[in-house]
Amino acid sequence: xxxxxxxxxxxxxxxxxxxxxxxxxxxxxxxxxxxxxxxxxxxxxxxxxxxxxxxxxxxxxxxxxxxxxxxxxxxxxxxxxxxxxxxxxxxxxxxxxxxxxxxxxxxxxxxxxxxxxxxxxxxxxxxxxxxxxxxxxxxxxxxxxxxxxxxxxxxxxxxxxxxxxxxxxxxxxxxxxxxx
Length: 180
Hints:
Layout: E1 2-4, H1 10-20, H2 36-49, E2 51-57, E3 60-68, E4 78-86, H3 95-110, E5 116-122, H4 126-134, E6 138-148, E7 154-163
Parallel strand pairs: 4-5
Antiparallel strand pairs: 1-2, 2-3, 3-4, 5-7, 6-7
């Protein structure tokens, strides 16, 4: 069952992220880097101006997704810092897709000021990038040698963005060519 996260979920979300961090080349943090401060921070930000959803089964949180606004007026239309974690023993059951779709549905239904959602995904994580593309995210660029993989080799990170359907955003015109 998908529901909005609450403060009482903190311990289970922390345990979930520590577990998921043990999977090589998944989230960008090691288990030691998944601290209480890290979890408190993203839960606080998502609760203040973003979205945090969990997937709960039998009282156990097995999936979580969050995103928040960057806190800058010029970027108030943006949700970023998007991260998802799904427990290894329940992966490949559609939980990640369902959490992503619920997040995007909530943006469309309840957050009219949000026109863009963005995330980063390492180039080697083709499975995740394919999922994101199937949900409407588009690869917009690569940051060369941005993230070290589990072997200590720097690899590219992709920036992917999703735009609200019919967001009323102005079309981007091509730059006129010099006629001289």
